[in-house]
Amino acid sequence: MFEQPDETKKTPRVSIVMSLAILAAYLIGAYGGLTLFLVLGDRPYGTQIATATVYTYFAFWYIFFPTRGLLQKYSLRDARVQQEIPLLLAIHCAFLILCFLGQSLWLPMKPRLPSYWSMETGRRDVSLYGWVSMGSAFILFFTQVLISRRILSRAMKIDEDESGLG
């Protein structure tokens, strides 16, 4: 019931093969995402469709597979994870709607903003508009990832506690 202070927790280890597979998946996702933005960018709602697709792809990888700092992985075959899938899908849909609404309101706002929002400054030649766009997308994305991983870790912990008591 209570954790012992001298009890050491086992940290999950990630094999080299899994690390290479995850790297390959990220590179494929980045290339596919860039291609989607180039193909759909000029079409109505093309940017939103490409964003939703890339967002979903990377959210899946960041939630279920180990990443730097988040080494726990969750198998889709695990019954405890499967029980949480409807909640995770609902959360994902809510974040996609927020992202879609944010882009639908923010993208047309660019011509109406003061000129300094569009001026490229700094070493990276990114405008304030670009920084706000990227920053809000990253905040939204990682908020969803952390919420979803917290739900999965609690589900795993609750099930371990129940099996330890009985």
Describe the model.
The protein is mainly alpha-helical. It contains four helices and two strands. A two-stranded antiparallel ribbon has the order 1-2. A hairpin with a 4-residue loop joins strand 1 and strand 2. The chain is elongated and about 60 Å long. It starts with 15 loop residues before the first helix and ends with a helix.
- Rg over alpha carbons: 20 Å
Tell me the helix content.
55-70%
Assembly state here? single chain
Note the main sheet.
2 strands, antiparallel
Tally the helices: 4
What amount of the residues lies in strands? under 5%
User: N-to-C terminal Cα separation, in Å?
Assistant: 12 Å
Name the descriptors.
single chain, 166 residues, 66% helix, elongated
TL;DR of this structure?
The chain has one domain.
Walk me through the topology.
Elements: H1 16-40, H2 46-64, H3 79-106, E1 120-121, E2 126-127, H4 128-165
Antiparallel strand pairs: 1-2
